[in-house]
Design a protein that fits this description.
With 324 residues, the chain is an alpha+beta fold. Helix content is 18%, strand content 32%. The radius of gyration is 25 Å and the shape is elongated.
């Protein structure tokens, strides 16, 4: 296996958003039943169509399901393919053409995989065999990186406590109010004590917005955030606080946050993603969040997004500096 295998597998597994039908994987049985065509093929050429997905020419090496003949050339529309590599390619169905767009519709084969392993097996067994061999190869290739990740997490788990801040009895400084202003990217920026904080209130219906770790002109993140159980600033006064901050690339960043799974904060989700190349956390009105700028991590701001007063055109936040 070469680097193409790993790059393609990661591209397929990470997923993306499409304006086209994108098949979701439920289980292998449903996967095989849904697909009108499943083949083992070598990618001969990829034609950039100017839109997604690409048009690919496939040399069919073996037919697992469908009418394609071994040795024939098949034209398909597919994702994440490289010329001269072998794949299991599945038609997601529901289209007038071979539509290999969806979860596990394009699975790269390890270089050592012997197609003869599939002989004598029914379609579902053949597909499971391919999945099994692909997973074995991927785990083997990822093992050194995962070991390095474990060591790096151990290395940063020192007593410096950079990411953790605590207060015995929190005090709030002078209360301020900031209202967003549009920036050049059609998003908004809040002025938090002279420091711009990029923001966007994209869904007034569910009262949901986003805070960006980096501002529009920056090449590296400048803000770090933490959720809070509080619904207004006054709740924080005089209370003991234990705050754990997260940066865009925090050491040991919980996988559940990266994967948009529920985080135990105030009962909602703390989400990190990369829309348009930027990492954000999702915020909701009627809740308090902590923020700090990387240039001055000792100054902690408590931000309250007032319930019912946020729109894409105007975001208003009350904030104060927290101290002991």
């Amino acid at each position: 296996m070469n680097r193409v295998f790993l790059a393609v597998v990661l591209g397929v597994l990470c997923g993306r958003s499409f304006a086209y039908p994108f098949a979701q994987f439920k289980d292998t049985t449903e996967f095989v039943e849904r697909a009108p065509n499943i083949v083992i093929a070598e990618c001969l050429a990829v034609t950039q169509t100017g839109d997604y997905p690409d048009e690919v020419k496939l040399n069919v090496l073996k037919t697992i399901k469908g009418d394609a003949k071994s040795g024939s050339v098949l034209v398909a529309y597919a994702q994440a393919m490289e010329p001269h590599a072998r794949y299991m390619v599945s038609d997601a169905g529901g289209q007038s053409k071979f539509w290999a767009v969806g979860e596990l519709c394009v699975v790269p084969l390890p270089a050592w995989f012997n197609i003869d392993e599939l002989t004598g097996k029914d379609p579902a067994q053949q597909v499971r065999t391919v999945f099994d061999r692909c997973l074995f190869e991927l785990e083997w290739r990822l093992a050194p990186a995962l070991q390095t990740k474990t060591l790096l997490e151990k290395a940063i788990n020192d007593p410096s406590g950079y990411w953790d801040v605590s207060y015995v009895a929190a005090k709030l400084g002078e209360l301020h109010e900031a209202t967003s202003e549009r920036d050049g990217d059609n998003l908004s920026s809040l002025n938090i004590q002279g420091k711009p904080l990029r923001s966007n209130w994209h869904n007034p219906v569910v009262k949901e917005g986003a805070l960006f770790f980096a501002n529009a002109s920056e090449t590296k993140p400048s803000w770090e955030f933490s959720p809070s159980r509080a619904t207004n600033l006054e709740e924080l006064a005089g209370k003991p606080l234990q705050i754990h901050f997260f940066g865009a690339y925090s050491p040991g960043l919980p996988v559940e946050i990266k994967n948009r799974i529920r985080y135990l904060g105030f009962g909602k989700e703390l989400v990190m993603t990369k829309p348009e190349g930027n990492r954000v956390i999702l915020v909701t009105s009627g809740h308090v969040y902590f923020a700090r700028h990387v240039d001055d991590p000792r100054t902690v701001f408590a931000l309250e997004f007032a319930d019912g007063h946020q729109t894409p055109q105007k975001i208003t936040v009350r904030y104060a500096v927290v101290s002991d």
